[in-house]
Design brief:
This protein folds into four domains: 123 residues, no CATH class; 80 residues; 142 residues, no CATH class; 139 residues, no CATH class. It has a seven-stranded mixed beta sheet, with no helix packed on it. A six-stranded mixed beta sheet has the order 5-8-3-2-12-15. Strands 17-10-9-20-21 form a five-stranded mixed beta sheet, with no helix packed on it. By secondary structure, the protein is α+β, with helices and mostly antiparallel strands. The protein is extended.
Length: 600
């Protein structure tokens, strides 16, 4: 279809032919050809096939979602015609109550009135029976007949009383049922459409000739639709090679008012947002700090109201100097403007659909997502990775071993943040979260605790020695020994077990600390080496399968100039099945005898 031109406008204005009017219902006259689902919204494409008459055609399509975003609607077409006008509006609702509601109300009212009439008649009969009994006397009833008369009266009275109770209960049930139906009525299809699908699109189309199957596509965005990523991560510690499987899933929820039945679905990871202008920096001003003024006692003055002839009494103080009497605000001083925090826009990541930062996922086949606000899971893809497994423990804080996997995303998909269910050797261990991971990027995935590695953190031993240096210098030296035992109960070997402990760090030159076992050097700067020099002995082979080093050595994310100065010692341990290893940390602390040392 084309855009309007002057010739077609003249034809429209000069023609006396009545326009061809088409009234359609969106869900019945179209099919959804695509749903692009973002975080918080969805873009829907509906395809309509219409029979257009030559000349002007007024097409009205009702039944669009209550969550439609009006400014997002656009109309496209194919055929020998042009689109002249598009109007989005609320579907007019009839002011007269529907026939089904009026008829139902009349039946309900009639039934209630009948019950009320029956109750009134039964009560009148009961009153008449009591009146008859009061008219009996010795002149018209023999004494021998009183028993029969009383028995007959009791029987009739009981029947009338039971009838009245039944009618009262039936009326109460009918009234309660009527109230419940008024609260949650079962609406017919046309009223459901008015409630949940209240919008309509009116399109003015000029056709050059009769068109049997002209195509019109309406693309629009709706809110109340969302998807989040979730993962199932399964790690197998008993095999090598492809030992980690990640199942990438999408959890979809939508409550737009229109169900998606048999639709092709595309998942978008980019978040549409406003405020795409890059920020700017304001001047950073330094000035002499002035003392805060001392608050003065308040007095009251009259200030004219801004838009009326009245005056209002407000507290006055020296801090109000500079406020105009008209009530109009003045600009803040520069110092206050500099100290005020500027509002920040929500950060937006822009990327391509190649998986660099954001990604587009096309779900194979067709799916059904009803408008019920419930979670519906679909699988995006499944991947197998060769991920090194790592174990680490800090027994001084907690004598348990934690396991993690270093996973490199070798797929073409970008992982977006989401929750992950973790399974190790077929058993569920924990729920964790996955960060944003681009292709070829590595991330750490915690796998929970490994109870098959047993760690014993023995009681620390301390020996105190008093020594004398020269004639007057007396010092105290304490030697600490910490033993750690680790036992591998697995039937498979363990590699990459990291054990971390700590020695104290001195902030006083009078307090000296020496590491005795393992004997590790300090960083390059501490021992006078440059980056080009080779640092020998930064790792010490303590025993077969055990290497000692300062924690952070060789780690690109750690400043190597401070390695060792934080006192953290690490052992890299490899264990055979059913093997135990003993680690020893020994150090001494020396300080003047009369110096009170905190923490020693």
């Amino acid at each position: 279809m084309t855009t309007p031109n002057p010739i077609s406008n003249l034809e429209v204005n000069s023609s006396d032919k009545q326009p061809n009017t088409l009234s359609l219902v969106s869900a019945q006259a179209s099919k959804i050809t695509n749903v692009s689902l973002y975080s918080g919204r969805a873009e829907i494409t509906r395809l309509f096939k219409l029979a257009l008459a030559e000349g002007q055609n007024q097409v009205t399509i009702r039944g669009f979602s209550r969550t439609i975003q009006n400014d997002s609607v656009r109309v496209e077409g194919r055929g020998n015609a042009s689109i002249h006008d598009v109007v989005i509006s609320k579907t007019p609702i009839s002011s007269n109550p529907p026939a089904w509601r009026t008829g139902s109300l009349r039946v309900q009212e009639r039934k209630e009135q009948e019950l009320k009439n029956q109750i009134a008649s039964a009560k009148h009969a009961r009153s008449t029976l009591d009146t008859y009994l009061s008219t009996l006397n010795a002149e018209n009833v023999a004494f021998s007949q009183l028993g029969d008369r009383f028995a007959d009266h009791a029987l009739l009275a009981r029947n009338l009383d039971n009838n009245i109770l039944d009618l009262v209960h039936e009326l109460a049930d009918l009234t309660a049922s009527s109230k419940a139906q008024n609260k949650t009525p079962t609406l017919p299809a046309e009223e459901v459409e008015e409630t949940h699908l209240p919008w309509q699109v009116s399109i003015n189309v000029w056709a050059q000739t009769d068109e049997e199957e002209a195509e019109i596509s309406i693309i629009y965005a709706v809110s109340n639709a969302n998807w989040t990523a979730s993962y199932d991560i399964r790690a197998d510690t008993r095999i090598s090679g492809k030992n980690v499987i990640i199942r990438y899933k999408a959890s979809i929820r939508q409550n737009t008012g229109e169900s998606w039945v048999g639709v092709p679905l595309t998942l978008e990871t980019v978040t549409p947002a406003l405020g795409m202008v890059s920020p700017s920096l304001s001047p950073w001003i330094l000035a002499e700090a002035k003392p805060e003024p001392i608050a003065q006692p308040h007095s009251v003055i009259a200030i004219p109201a801004q838009r009326s002839g009245y005056t209002s009494a407000v507290p006055y103080s020296d801090s109000m100097v500079g406020v105009p009497m008209s009530g109009m605000p003045m600009a803040l001083p520069a110092a206050r403007m500099a100290s005020a925090h500027a509002m920040q826009h929500r950060p937006v990541i822009i990327g391509t659909n190649k998986g660099d930062v954001t990604a587009t996922f096309r779900i194979p086949g067709y799916i059904n997502v009803p408008s019920d606000a419930q979670q519906h899971d679909v699988t995006i893809s499944s991947f197998e990775f060769n991920a090194p497994l790592l174990w680490h423990t800090i027994p001084k804080a907690n004598a348990r071993v934690y396991m993690e996997a270093k996973i490199k995303n070798e797929s073409e998909y970008a992982f977006i943040p989401g929750t992950a269910n973790m399974y190790v050797d077929g058993s569920f261990v924990a729920t964790t979260s996955i960060p944003a991971v681009n292709p070829q990027e590595t991330f750490s995935c915690p796998l929970g605790l490994d109870s098959s590695l047993r760690v014993t953190y023995h009681r620390q031993e301390c020996h105190r020695i008093h020594s004398v240096t020269g004639f007057y210098k007396k010092s105290t030296t304490k030697t600490y020994t910490q033993r750690i035992t680790i036992f591998n109960t697995k039937s498979t070997p363990i590699e990459n077990l990291k054990v971390v402990d700590i020695i104290p760090v001195s902030q006083d030159e009078r307090i000296e600390i020496k590491l005795l076992n393992p004997l590790l050097p300090l960083s390059r700067r501490a021992i006078g080496l440059t980056e080009d020099d080779e640092l020998k002995g930064d790792r010490i082979q303590v025993s077969p399968g055990v290497v000692a080093l300062w924690d952070g050595t060789g780690d690109p994310e750690t400043n190597q100039d401070v390695v060792g100065k934080n006192g953290r010692v690490r052992w890299d341990v490899s264990l055979r099945p059913q093997e135990a290893v003993n680690l020893v940390l020994k150090f001494e602390v020396s300080y003047p005898e009369k110096l009170a040392v905190e923490g020693a």
